[in-house]
Write a structure and sequence with these properties.
The protein has helices at 6-27, 39-54, 58-91, 102-131, and strands at residues 150-153, 161-164. The protein is mainly alpha-helical.
Length: 179
């Protein structure tokens, strides 16, 4: 499994929350939820970060931090908007369209409640790593879509750390899986 960087995780989080908010906006009355698509600016920030990461000079590190600062600002704004929309849905103050599907709205609300805390965790771990220098954050998120993913250190020279889960399969003599 490929290990995404913090910038990629933030980009995924922004994309997922924005997409979910956009789908919710389609179910609401016009103007009830205004969603701004940050895809282009997010892509530019991620490319900026990756370019700056190649340089080991002081100016490169400053550009890296500046890129992360901008990306974190976008992520915080989208997470804040997701929290506001979730609160309005919970209060019942968000005006839904007459043709809105209740099941679809509930599904989208559940997606917001699932991904918003994960994005906030990624924001916190990125701040700790980039600005605090702490690479060993407790409860580190390695994937937004597979939360059970863990870092596996096998000690291979070409791949010191792999990501995923270890599975043990016990097999009987006849090729039948027993455990």
């Amino acid at each position: 499994m490929h290990y995404p960087t913090d910038s990629t995780l933030l980009g995924d989080g922004i994309r997922v929350l924005t997409r979910t908010l956009g789908r919710l906006a389609q179910e609401c009355q016009s103007g009830a939820v205004k969603v701004i698509d940050h895809a282009r600016s997010t892509k530019h920030r991620i490319l900026e970060i990756h370019r700056a990461a190649k340089s080991m000079r002081t100016t490169g590190r400053e550009r890296l931090k500046d890129g992360y600062r901008r990306l974190l600002g976008i992520a915080r704004g989208v997470a804040r908007q997701a929290d506001k929309v979730s609160a309005k849905l919970a209060d019942g103050t968000l005006k839904l369209d007459a043709e809105a599907s209740t099941a679809r709205v509930l599904t989208l609300e559940a997606q917001l409640r699932h991904f918003a805390p994960l994005v906030r965790k990624v924001i916190a771990q990125t701040q700790a790593r980039v600005f605090g220098g702490d690479c060993h954050v407790e409860g580190k998120v390695l994937s937004l879509f597979e939360e059970h993913t863990a870092a596996i250190c096998k000690g291979k020279a070409h791949k010191p750390t792999e990501f995923g889960r270890l599975v043990r399969v016990d097999e009987a003599e006849n090729g039948i899986v027993s455990n």
